[in-house]
Specification:
The chain has 460 residues and is an alpha/beta fold. It folds into two domains: 221 residues, 3-Layer(aba) Sandwich (Rossmann fold); 205 residues, Nucleotidyltransferase, domain 5. The longest helix is centred in the first third of the chain and has 18 residues. The two termini are 47 Å apart.
Length: 460
């Protein structure tokens, strides 16, 4: 994780503890788990995440108050995406936090603009829609409420105000709290890149809900409400998982059910599916089906801004790893692969054929394809077992793509068309490839047909 040199971290931690003891004689709240870690982390960027009602905001604001009291003349800020969303939410909690230790003056009345401390420290208040003085200069620390509402550009822009230039603290930092979002949210990408420390809180961390041994009266009531949530709200708000999207189409999708480790076996049918793209990713998947009808997405290749020969080489290597010969491998593809242009009479299908991959037209009906995917995923509420699974080692991003799919508001039977961004992230390319592949199985499955090749693989 991006942090400070070890010597500076030790010095900062020691000084932080010393200053904490001098800050106030008021008893400190009880902190557990991630909330406790939030009081001492020295990471340059950190966010406390978790399901609803774990005390994330309280823990982050208490750390902010500690920093302001410990650094005379320090300049801090409380930020949210929209300023109007702060007064009835985060600033209510903030008022309770600063009241515990006292001595803080508010400026701005019912619409606070800043808070002044006896030691000359100041905490500004603002939204990204009205940054004004809040982000006009260098800050010793900035706390972001509901960080999942921001995009990565917002977060990085705020980060340019906490570089340490002119800071009075040893550890300037950008930090916040958030509720879980989708699996490919920028917070997760930033965590995985080692830039941001993500502290994962749970309901047992909150003393109002759990006394360390059992649920409190309030905890029993709160957990009953959270247990009644459904779909993506249950996954995020109750379990704290980064999954899916609002309006999620395939609500039955579950990582514990649909993500597996599975290799194809002798006699199982194999085939491929391809969704072409250049600016957005080309997605190529390899499927296999058991004699009992279960389908597995064995592996996935998805890259944008590559040319056909580059994709073909990567596909060669992928099939070699799987032990599947590409000769006579059936590959279904979107119909745009047969489009011709004035400048290039060769189609995408022609170019792949020159590389040894013969494509055939997929069934591209969006509504029927969405239905086929949904049926294959099963329905646990109706005790319908799933028959489609994804190998998490070689095709895990396909699960993320399915979880990102939402209903088309113009046709609720269809999945909303989503384009990838300039970096090739997001989009529905993997989903399109999956529906092509599953429709191919639905249309031509013949478990009794003899193998078409002498290979140990049955080619569809």
């Amino acid at each position: 994780m991006m942090s400070y040199p070890p010597s500076l971290k030790l010095k900062a931690a020691a000084e932080l503890e010393l200053r904490r003891r001098r800050v106030s004689h008021a008893p400190a709240p009880t902190f557990r788990g991630a909330a406790d870690q939030a009081q001492s982390t020295t990471s340059r960027e950190w966010i406390i995440s978790g399901p609803y009602e774990t005390g994330k905001t309280w823990a982050a604001l208490y750390r902010l108050d500690t920093e302001a009291r410990a650094n005379a003349g320090g300049q801090y800020a409380i930020v949210r995406k929209v300023r109007a969303d702060m007064d009835g939410s985060v600033l209510v909690t903030w008022a309770k936090v600063i009241a515990m230790r006292g001595g803080v003056n508010v400026f701005g009345g019912n619409k606070p603009q800043w808070f002044d401390y006896p030691n000359g420290a100041r905490v500004w208040v603002g939204g990204l829609d009205r940054p004004e003085k809040t982000l006009s200069g260098e800050r010793d620390g900035i706390y972001v409420n509901q960080a999942e509402e921001l995009d990565e550009h917002d977060w990085e822009t705020i980060g340019t105000r906490t570089t340490g230039r002119g800071a009075v603290t040893l550890t300037p930092m950008l930090f916040g709290d958030c509720n879980p979002g989708s699996e490919d949210h920028w917070i997760i990408r930033r965590r995985d890149a080692g830039v941001l420390t993500l502290l994962e809180s749970i309901h047992e961390d909150n003393p109002a809900l759990h006394d360390g041994q059992d649920w409190t009266e309030q905890g029993v009531c709160t957990m009953a409400i959270l247990d009644a949530l459904t779909g993506v709200r249950y996954q995020r708000g109750r379990l704290g998982r980064w999954v899916g999207a609002e309006g999620m189409y395939f609500t039955q999708l579950h990582p514990d059910i649909h993500l597996v480790e599975q290799d194809a076996r002798e006699g199982w049918q194999v085939w491929g599916a391809l969704d072409y793209g250049f600016s957005h990713p080309l997605s190529f998947g390899v499927f296999t089906q058991t004699p009992h009808g279960e389908i597995y997405l064995l592996a996935l290749h998805a890259v944008h801004k590559w040319y056909i020969h580059q994709h073909a080489q990567a596909m060669d290597e992928l099939l070699q790893q799987l032990g599947i010969p590409k000769q006579s491998l059936r590959i279904v593809a979107g119909h745009d692969c047969w489009a011709t242009g004035h400048d290039d009479p060769e189609t995408i299908a022609d170019k792949f054929d020159a590389c040894g991959y013969r494509l055939e037209r997929a069934v591209i009906s969006r509504v029927i394809g969405a239905r086929a995917v949904g049926e294959r995923l099963g329905n646990p509420e109706s005790a319908v077992a799933p028959t489609f699974f994804i190998d998490k080692r070689r095709a895990g991003r396909a699960f993320t793509s399915l979880a990102r799919m939402v209903h088309d508001p113009r046709n609720t039977e269809d999945v909303l068309k989503i384009n990838a961004d300039a970096e090739g992230r997001g989009g529905d390319d993997d989903y399109d490839m999956i529906r092509y592949g599953l429709m191919a199985a639905t249309q031509t499955l013949d478990l009794k047909a003899p193998p078409r090749t002498p290979n140990r693989w049955r080619q569809m």
